[in-house]
Design a protein that fits this description.
The chain is of the alpha/beta class and 218 residues long. Helices cover 34% and strands 17% of the residues. It contains seven helices and eight strands. It has helices spanning 15-19, 32-48, 62-70, 94-101, 107-110, 143-162, 173-183, and strands at residues 6-10, 55-58, 76-77, 123-126, 132-135, 167-171, 201-207, 210-216. InterPro entries: His_Pase_superF_clade-1 (IPR013078), His_PPase_superfam (IPR029033), PGM_Phosphatase (IPR050275).
Length: 218
């Protein structure tokens, strides 16, 4: 029996994705373009995979759950698919963090814990369309903590794959890259070398008993 595939779909465009602001647990909605991207992504996924998926899960955050719905999939929420908790980096750009830190900052190498406390104020931000979002802050997750969630996701979907069943996950760029790294048994930090655009998907599979990445960014 051929093992099943795992499809990983990133949510559509948001204003913070456009501006480069780190969007972890803040519930930033899709833009109108993001909604159109979600519909188109559903069409691309169904063209590649016309049959119904054995299971569909999504992050409970609105940008992911709305993407799943607009793409035409009935997804169950899965907390382990929530985006990396960026802590004080939430809503900030790399440039802002680097300026406050006095040196270049890299999420994958430095983690949220390196972000200066001065950037850590809870606040309400107004999006370009006038919507307001509440920015809640925590200490954030380390890379290993976020990767532990990704590994739990892989354990969940691998059980389906081993039965020859295909599944779909709809979530966020960083957590999906970590799921991909866990699937192919690469160190989590290697996820920084892969980019996944909005409303693009990855296909994980198996080749001769070896977990592989079959497609990236389709």
């Amino acid at each position: 029996m051929k093992p099943g595939n795992v499809y990983l779909l990133r949510h559509g465009q948001t204003y913070w994705a456009m501006s480069g602001q780190h969007t972890g647990r803040t519930d930033v909605p899709l833009t109108e373009v993001g909604k159109q991207q979600a519909v188109a992504a559903g069409e691309r996924v169904r063209e590649a995979h016309p049959e119904a998926f054995a299971a569909v899960w999504c992050s409970p955050l609105v940008r992911a759950s709305e993407t799943a719905k607009l793409a035409g999939f009935d997804a169950k929420p899965c907390d382990d698919l929530m985006e990396w908790d960026y802590g004080r980096a939430e809503g900030r750009t790399r440039g802002q963090i680097g300026e406050a830190l006095g040196r270049a900052w890299n999420l994958w190498l430095d983690g949220p814990q390196a972000v200066p406390e001065a950037l850590g104020a809870e606040r309400v931000e107004t999006l370009p369309d006038g919507q307001q979002v509440q920015v809640h802050l925590t200490e954030g997750e380390t890379l290993d903590e976020a990767f532990a969630r990704a590994r739990r996701v892989v354990e969940k979907v691998r059980a389906y794959s081993e039965e020859g069943k295909d599944v779909l996950l709809v979530a966020h760029s960083h957590i999906l890259r970590l799921v991909a790294m866990a699937w192919v048994d690469l160190p989590p930090v290697e996820g920084r070398k892969f980019e996944l655009g909005t409303a693009r998907y990855i296909v994980l599979g198996d080749h001769k008993g070896q977990p592989v990445i079959e497609h990236w960014g389709a």
